């Protein structure tokens, strides 16, 4: 039996994978890992926590969406034996230019402050108004997914977005190139 480990994105939860799981072929065992369970004090530390899990229960494929994809890519870069196949959805390999990294870190610090100030419901409302999410807002599953976001922990997510900012994480473009034959990257025009 093949085993896949799935990592959701920012503000998400393992429940975000329900539609995907419903359409997988029989014989694929899936574990949906909550980012909260990985601590997310940095992308590197989250990847280390994931590595500890995978050392005892290896997987055939590691699948990550957005922030979850960056954690998966970090693991693949640092512990490639634990990520035989990699599927990254709406995931960036990171920011390589120093000035851009500094700008992004400041932007994510501001987002963290907004999240603490507004609370998760109002923040999620603003977050999903970004042009990036226009296609998602038009999808029939949007309202249900949006409602799940309001159940999240604002303190955890505010710490997470600042600590796991692409401005504070290693750029893994080289790792992605080195793993090209064992990786799939799917991004949209607005990502």
What secondary-structure arrangement, pairings included, does this model have?
Blueprint: E1 2-7, H1 18-22, E2 28-33, H2 43-56, E3 61-65, H3 67-78, E4 86-89, H4 98-118, H5 120-127, H6 134-137, H7 142-149, H8 154-163, H9 173-178, E5 183-186
Parallel strand pairs: 1-2, 1-3, 3-4, 4-5
Features:
single chain; alpha/beta; 191 residues; Rossmann fold; globular; 5-stranded parallel β-sheet; 9 helices
Order of helices and strands: EHEHEHEHHHHHHE
Helix/sheet category:
alpha/beta
How many domains? The number is 1
Order of strands in the sheet with most strands: 2-1-3-4-5
CATH class category name:
Alpha Beta
User: What's the helix count?
Assistant: 9
CATH architectural category = 3-Layer(aba) Sandwich
Anisotropy-based shape: globular
**Terminal-residue CA separation:** 33 Å
Mean pLDDT across residues: 95
Which range best describes the helical content: under 10%, 10-25%, 25-40%, 40-55%, 55-70% or over 70%?
Answer: 40-55%
Q: What's the count of strands? A: 5
Q: How much is the radius of gyration in Å?
A: 16 Å
Largest sheet: 5 strands, parallel
Parts with pLDDT < 50 across at least 5 consecutive residues: none
CATH superfamily: Alpha/Beta hydrolase fold, catalytic domain
Q: At the third CATH level, what is the topology name?
A: Rossmann fold
- Percent of sequence in beta strands: 5-15%
